[in-house]
Design a protein that fits this description.
18-stranded antiparallel β-sheet, 10 helices
Length: 397
Amino acid sequence: MSLQSAKWSMLTASTILLGMAIAPASAQSIDDVAARVKSNFTEQGVEIEWKGLSGDLSSMVMQGVSFKAAGTDGAFEIGDLTLENISEADGNINVGSISSDAYSRNDGPTSFEISPMVMKDVILFGEASSNPFGGMMYYRSIKLDDISMKNSGKTAFAAKDISATMSEFATDKPVTMEATVPNFTADLTLVDDPKYKDAIEALGYQTINGSIRMEGSWNAADGDMNIVKYDTKIDNAGTLGVSMRLGGYTTEFIKSMQELQKQMAEASEEADSSAQGMAMLGLMQQLSFNSTSIRFTDDSLTNKLLDYFGKQQGVSGKDVANQAKAIVPFGLAQLQNPELTAQASAAVNQFLDNPGSLEISAAPTSPVPFALIMADAMANPTNLTKTLAVSVKANQN
C-alpha cells in the first residue's frame, strides 16, 4: 500500500468519524435508534453494519461497527460506538455524548491510528421538526486528541487536539462554527519521488509544522453559508487563507444533493451518467455567489522559491522575480480586462519586491446566481472577471 493511499484511507476514516450523522428517531428502544443510524447512513451513501447492541437509553453501545461507501468493497471496522444520556424532547433525541473506540490499522509497512472521538450535546432532529439541519447532525462540540500515520516505523503525519464547536441551535438565527487543528507535522523525507525530494531538501522543508483554523456560519432558514476563515499555516513558509460566502445552501438543497448522491452511488458503471450530470447542474443553479478570497501571507517561502528556481537556471532569485514580472501582463492579457491586468501586474510586482501578502478576491456588488456564472463561462468566459468583480491586492492587512 502506497504512502499516499494510506494517508487517504486514514483521512477518510477520520472524516467519517468526525462528520457522522444519525437519523431522527423516536427513542423507544436501542434497536430503534440503531435502525435510524443505519437508515441515515444509507441516505448518505454509506453502508453501516454492527455485530451487536447492548445497554439501554441511558447508555447504549453499538458493537463492532463497520462502514463502507455504497457500491464499494473493503469496509472500515471502527470498533464500538457509545451513546450516553439519551432523552427525547419536542420530537428530537438529545444525546449527552457519542464516543468511538480508538482506531488503528496496519497495511504492510504503513500504519495509522486515530484516538477516540467524542461529541458532546448532540441533537438528533425528529421528523416533527422537518430536519432543520438537512439530515446532518448537530453537536455543540467534538474532539479528537490525535491522529497519526507511520511508514516503516517513522511518523509521516500527525495532528493533535483536533476540535470543533457550534453555537447553540435556534431556528431563527445562524449557527456559528469553529474548527481547529492547532498542531500538525509531516515528515517530507519520506517522499520517494526524486524530483520532489530534491526540491524539499533545497528549500529546507524536510519536516513541516503547521496549524489549521476555520470559522464560519450557516443560516438554515435562508441558506446563507459563510466561511469567514479557512487558514492553513505552515511554519517558516506562509499561510494560505480562503474565505467564501454562498446563498441558497438551504436544507432543501442539501436533501436534494443527498438524494442525487444516493442515485449516483446505486447506478451501475455501465449506466448513462448524462442525466445525473444535468441534475447536478440544475442543483447548482439554486446557489448564488456572494464572494470569495484566496490570500497567501508569506513567511519566507517566496524568496526561497525564487532562489531555488534561480539556482536551477544559473541566475539570481531577483532575476527570476524580474522574469515573472515581465510574464504576468502577457498571461493576463487573454482575460481581455485591461484594468484587472494592470492591477494584478502592479500587485505581483509589489509582492515580489517585498513579499508580504498576495490576495485574489471576487466580490460582486450583489449576489450572482450560479446559472449566470455558468452561462458566462460557456458563452463569454472573458466576461467572468467583470461579472464577479475580481481584484488582486498585495501587502495589505
